[in-house]
Amino acid sequence: MRLVLLSVLAASSLALAQPRGGPPEEAITACSGLAEGTACGFTHRGNNLTGTCRKGPDGQTAACLPEGAGRHRGPPEEAVTACSGKSAEATCSFTHHDRTVEGTCRTGPRGEALTCAPAGGHRGPPQEAITACASSTAGAACSVSFHGKTLNGTCSAGPDGSKLACLPARPPQP
User: What is the annotated signal peptide range for this record (predicted)?
Assistant: First the structure.
């Protein structure tokens, strides 16, 4: 009985000592003894990753930051191509991840090339979710396909009482 209690207490104290979130242990080990800015690599969940050693928010612990991590990559190439040869505020459309996006050609905040910006920005449900409930009432069962996966859900109005859309019972998994 004492052994079980000691084991539980030891496991609890170890769990409390480890911070939640943050880089995986493999990323920290990959930069052990290396200077910030040094190239590094590690394996995490079966993926071989390469990157650069960077200090964490505590300014002390260095970890291997994989290439491309934490950087916004910008709009998809299809969105840029959709506005090629068009002027600002022209209507546009493009297909991305098997989904047609309609919008307006706009420049980015730093004067980037014209890009097809989705109508209404990124707010609200996708058109497929709205279409799935077009002839239904609130609370009706529905199904919608995203990225080749069919999800079952319920027709629901948005928080502002807007159009009904199919709200999946479980969010889509990447």
Answer: 1-17
Does one domain contain both 63 and 88?
no
Q: CB under 8 Å to 16, separation ≥6 — which residues?
A: none
Say how far apart CA 45 and CA 23 lie, in whole Å. Answer: 13
Whole-angstrom distance, CA of residue 59 vs CA of residue 78: 39
Whether the predicted pLDDT of 10 surpasses 90 = no
Same-domain pairing of 81 and 67: no
Helix (H) or strand (E) holding 41: strand 39-44
pTM of the predicted protein model: 0.33
Domain count, the chain: 3
Confirm whether 15 is domain-assigned: no
Domain that holds residue 30: 22-71
- Maximum CA extent, the chain: 77
Let me know if residue 17 belongs to a domain.
no
Nearest to 113, CA basis, from 84, 133, 71, 137: 84
Q: How confident is the model at residue 68 (pLDDT cuts 50, 70, 90)?
A: low
Q: Is residue 30 scored above 80 in pLDDT?
A: yes
CA distance 133 to 144: 9
